[in-house]
């Protein structure tokens, strides 16, 4: 009876230790995420300040402000997104997504897959070959 109580006590202690470790890990992850969010917001605000200065410089020098205004719009949208959690409706599409979409058009894969390597391309690029067919 004593041995059973001892085993039960050890099991409870072990469960408490594991639960505490999980809680500490979750708290550390939450803190790291908050730190990353704060760093991203600080970077976005610096980018916004640079964009504002670029617009001012362009106006002062009598140059076109189209590029500077576009950069300001992107920077401002990023700050708003980081502060509120959602991008504003007027925000331009993210340039990173456009670059990814351009790389995923399959033009290079299709040229290499059908003519040059035959069966190997179907194995390596199976999903792409199926989409193109």
Which features characterize this protein?
133 residues; mainly alpha; 83% helix; disordered C terminus
Description:
The chain has 133 residues and is an all-alpha fold. Helices cover 83% and strands 0% of the residues. It contains 6 helices and no strands. The radius of gyration is 27 Å and the shape is rod-shaped.
Per-chain topology:
Layout: H1 2-61, H2 66-84, H3 95-103, H4 107-116, H5 119-124, H6 126-132
Quickly describe the structure:
The protein is mainly alpha-helical. Helix content is 83%, strand content 0%.
The helix fraction, in percent, is over 70%
CA gyration radius, whole angstroms: 27 Å
Percentage of β-strand residues: under 5%
State the major sheet. Answer: none
Q: Low-confidence runs (pLDDT<50, min 5 residues)?
A: 97-103, 105-133
Coarse structural class: mainly alpha
- Would you list the SSEs in sequence order as H and E? HHHHHH
Roughly how many Å apart are the termini?
Answer: 71 Å
Average residue-wise pLDDT: 78
DSSP summary: helix tally = 6
Outline type: rod-shaped
Number of strands: 0
């Amino acid at each position: 009876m004593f041995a059973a109580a001892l085993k039960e006590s050890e099991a409870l202690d072990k469960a408490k230790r594991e639960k505490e470790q999980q809680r500490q890990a979750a708290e550390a992850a939450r803190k790291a995420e908050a730190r990353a969010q704060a760093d991203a917001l600080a970077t976005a605000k610096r980018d916004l300040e640079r964009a504002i200065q670029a617009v001012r410089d362009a106006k002062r020098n009598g140059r076109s402000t189209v590029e500077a205004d576009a950069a300001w719009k992107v920077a401002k949208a990023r700050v708003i997104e980081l502060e509120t959690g959602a991008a504003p409706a007027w925000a331009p599409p993210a340039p990173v997504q456009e670059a990814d979409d351009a790389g995923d058009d399959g033009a290079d894969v299709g040229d290499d897959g059908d003519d040059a390597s035959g069966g190997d391309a179907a194995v390596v690029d199976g999903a792409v070959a199926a989409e193109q067919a």
